[in-house]
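quick one
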Amino acid sequence: MKFFADTANLEHLTELTELGLIDGCTTNPLIMAKEQHYDFEAHLKEVLRLIKGPVSIEVTTNDYDEMIRQSKEFSSWGKNAVVKIPMIKDGLRAVATLTKLGIKTNVTCCMTTKQAVLAAKAGATYMSLFWGRISDLGVNAKQVVDETAEIYARHNIKTEIIVGSIRGQTDVNEAIKRGAHIITIPPNIFMDMIYHPRTESTIKEFLDKWDAFVKSNPMNKPKQEDN
Ligand code: E4P
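structure w/ erythose-4-phosphate:
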């Protein structure tokens, strides 16, 4: 299973990279709008340099010609650039064209298994199912992801399933057990995944006991490094 970071924030991406937790990253116009006072192209080129895996950059239009123009531009910014295309009719047409041009795509805002199958059919490299937004509709997101994964597997479909729109630990706990290839997670939720109060208290207990032991057995004090 791969984890992507659902952010364009350079500080968060650097921290998650140093922690060795991420295999790629996903952005969208809403995520980009959260970063203040920056140059879009320069910022994303920086992200593409920092992240070794795929970086999804979303087009900011629903117009076919403009989607193709932006996709060519974004994909020229780095070998790991993936263009995010909306799940609309002209989006699928754009994916079919971009696939022929060898440009990697991520079909975004998918809410149903049918849409997921269409995205794959058009040639998408990745297809994103929006867990939180599917659940908002009163639909069982687990079922949508499970069915999609099963159909992709049954027909040997190579498109990778990304589960996005993750809003908390309950979503992670459930999404992680499904058949998706990738989960894209916001940085604050990644940090919460690390923490558990019982883990903290156990580590503290071990270190407290060790410190007490060293106090009564000073020969075991850690050696100082020579400068
Ligand atoms: C995924 O690629 C999207 O960037 C993201 O997960 C969107 O989800 P949200 O807007 O519901 O948080």
